[in-house]
Description:
Elements: E1 2-3, E2 9-10, H1 36-46, E3 52-56, E4 65-69, E5 86-90, E6 98-101, H2 104-112, E7 116-118, H3 120-123, E8 131-134, H4 140-158
Helix pairs in contact: 1-4
Amino acid sequence: MTTTVDGRLDLPRRSGERPRTREHNPHQQLDQIAPPELQEELWSRMTTLDGVLLGRSGVSLPDTRALHLRPGIARGPRAAYLAGTEFAHLHGHGDGSLHMCLPEDVVAQAVSRGWAEAHPMARQGYLPGTLVMVYGPRDHAELEVVWQLVRISHRFAARPATA
């Protein structure tokens, strides 16, 4: 992944077809499942982000592992969170995708380049357009792209809403 001269994100195009996903809740990835070892490597990285509390998701299935920001650090806009201070979660091994909130310009690029799709409730206007499913990584190169998106989600949730 590269960034442009002015620091903006420049995601590569994800290879192949988009995975099949459930079009309603629970919003899940149905094929092209990330290998469990890549899911665990991603989760291990996710746990190292500054100011995160690990726990269950407030909005997903019981096997989902969530990242919550410590309240004193959670200074992002309301659209940066799934529920409370939860800004991202990794679904269980049978799925391997993630839900996260991303800035709108990043959402547009992640969707157009094949890395993500809008959450069904966001498409219907019930949840912010910042909420997306990011597909689970199929290999180490994809893991790096997904990790970059997780870090962007973390910064989005931690930055002051007025920034």
